[in-house]
Amino acid sequence: MREPLSDILINQNIPFYKNAMMSQYTTLRVGGPADVITCPRNAQELQTVLRAAKEAAESVFILGNGSNLLVMDGGVRGLVIFTGNMASIQRDGKTIFADAGAKLSAVAKTALSAGLSGMEALSGIPGTIGGAAAMNAGAYGQSMSDVVHMVNALNETGDMLALTNESLSYGYRQSALMKNKWIAASVALSLPKGDPEDISQKMKTFAERRKESQPLHLPSAGSFFKRPEGHFAGALIEQAGLKGVSVGGAQVSTMHAGFFVNTGGATARDFIDLMHIVQDRVMRHSGVTLEPEVKIIGCNSFC
What we know:
Low-confidence stretches: none
Strand order of the largest sheet: 6-7-12-10-11
Number of strands: 17
């Protein structure tokens, strides 16, 4: 990292770490070192970091909960901005305001306590509200596009943008945030009133379904592949006889073939090799191309 950026972080008292292993920040528990990880605590610090990085010509990657992410073994060059310290959640009537780093589970609990519906199916997704809003995360037929009212975002130069649901141009696992590489700073959700007991029961039901069908006991990145039109990735993988297939410590889950899990000591290379095996065999078996849903970043080796 260039010294001017380092000096700014020190002068602004914004925490940062050099050569931190990304495996400590991802739910898959793999990934080499990042040159620098900085941890802003609010939108103002995030804005300061982005503008400083732009001035210093540093590449930037935004990291939330580290789910839906595969970091290569060579690590990440440039600056990684970890939003996990930006986790404030507030409520005003039927609207919940959450900083980008707030976890979906915490936002869902806030909604439950206020008797607000709409977050039940999303409550078990292991990600942050900012990342979920950016990729239009969804589960059990519900998506973030159903509940997002507005997103305050920063562009690459640190200018603040106020984006309505309509202007976010939501689609399946995509949004204007992703397309334009804008960074969510905070998210406002508009939620209808509901019966707290009914909301609580739905959350419990979805949690039980996840526990019964997903390998929550092992590190994973969630669903590894996007859902192909007219198909389910997990079903295609299982039909191709790939359930339980492994490369090193990376394995197609024996519980749900749509998940890749780290059985211990896996490397990013293991997951990449396993991904290619699965894609090739599914293509030969069913003629369907599987595209990774996980974001793959970093270097194959130190670079």
